[in-house]
């Protein structure tokens, strides 16, 4: 892995990796959901957005994405990107300004995985 990182750094420079975690905790302090991402090469990748079942439809997902966008902008990012299955939330992300830039059909069978980005 180190030789690959050295090669990448020699071609693209230091990626400036920073991890982002916006946690949603229950009353007992346990983590119930949140947003996890990585900032690298001037973009934020949203790895996971998890809204607890009981909080869905109440704006929590939009709030977390808004906070992540604010963090990305503060770090000088050019935009954000993520992936989502058809059965997850592509329409939610479209409403937030994300566009599909790629699609992998039949992943899983009969569905698709959508690769989406939002440039600031």
From TrEMBL:
One of its GO terms (cellular component) is cytoplasm. CDD domains: NAT_SF. Residues 1-120 form the N-acetyltransferase domain. Coiled coil: none annotated. Pfam families: Acetyltransf_1. InterPro entries: Acyl_CoA_acyltransferase (IPR016181), GNAT_dom (IPR000182), NAA80 (IPR039840). It comes from the Bacteria. One of its GO terms (molecular function) is acetyl-CoA binding. Keywords: Transferase. This is GNAT family N-acetyltransferase. It comes from Croceibacterium salegens.
